[in-house]
Design brief:
By secondary structure, the protein is an alpha/beta fold. The protein has two domains: 2-129, Resolvase, N-terminal catalytic domain (Rossmann fold), CATH 3.40.50.1390; 166-213. The chain contains eight helices and five strands. The chain has helices at 19-31, 54-65, 83-95, 118-151, 166-172, 174-181, 186-196, 202-213; strands spanning 2-9, 35-43, 70-73, 99-102, 107-108. Strands 2-1-3-4-5 form a five-stranded mixed sheet, with helices on both faces.
């Protein structure tokens, strides 16, 4: 069976990468006779809607166009921000006869005969809802801490003088801007920068595109 790997981390900095996810899923594929034909990795906030997860959209389209039997992901939260988006992604795959394997939960959405496993879909719904509640709790705690800090006189945001001028950014990110001016997508610019050893986040590329190209 042919499969693809989709891996995602929330941090847009270099503190996190998808290497561990890819390595673990590759080992699973090798142990279960799955030929991984392509790996899709992206750095995008877990708060982003699926429509804003460009690499996820690319992975789904690739799977549909290339007779992929299974999409491998580390956990349910990787393929959707909310319960409904996770289920929407899974339904799209099921409608095309594509299995989705979630390693953390150790579940497949399709049985070996290609039929849907309804209990697994219920299980995924419950897990996704629990993850969603936890994100809301974290958001509440962060906002409470921020409010308390402001009340105590703590200054929030960037330090004074830390905002770069347009000229400074143009000079610092000239290599990134070179790729953007060629019409490359943000995802492809990020890949080129990584290949060149340039440390830049996806968020920064989006910001540069908006300021200099759009």
């Amino acid at each position: 069976m042919k499969g693809i790997i989709y891996a995602r981390v929330s941090s847009l900095t270099d503190r996190q990468n998808t290497d561990r996810q890819v390595e673990d899923l590759t080992k699973y594929a090798e142990a279960n006779g799955i030929e991984v034909v392509k790996v899709f990795s992206e750095k995008v906030s877990g708060a982003k809607k699926n429509a804003e997860r460009l690499v996820l959209s690319e992975a789904l389209a690739f799977a549909e166009a290339n007779e992929i039997g299974v999409i491998l992901a580390s956990e349910g939260s990787r393929i959707g921000r909310s319960t409904w988006e996770v289920l929407e992604t899974i339904k799209r795959c099921i409608d095309k006869g594509i299995d989705v394997y979630l390693q953390k939960e150790n579940i497949h959405t399709l049985r070996k005969d290609g039929t849907t496993d309804p209990m697994m879909c219920v299980y995924i719904s419950c897990l996704s809802m629990a993850n969603e509640f936890e994100r809301e709790n974290i958001k509440f705690r962060l906002n409470s801490g921020r409010k308390l800090a402001i009340e105590k006189g703590v200054k929030m945001g960037r330090k004074e003088g830390s905002v770069k001028t347009k000229e400074e950014k143009e000079k610092e990110y000239q290599s990134v801007l070179k790729y953007l001016k060629k019409g490359l997508s943000v995802a492809n610019v990020l890949k080129c920068c990584r290949a060149d050893g340039i440390k830049v986040s996806e968020r920064t590329i989006w910001s540069l595109k908006k300021e200099f190209i759009s």
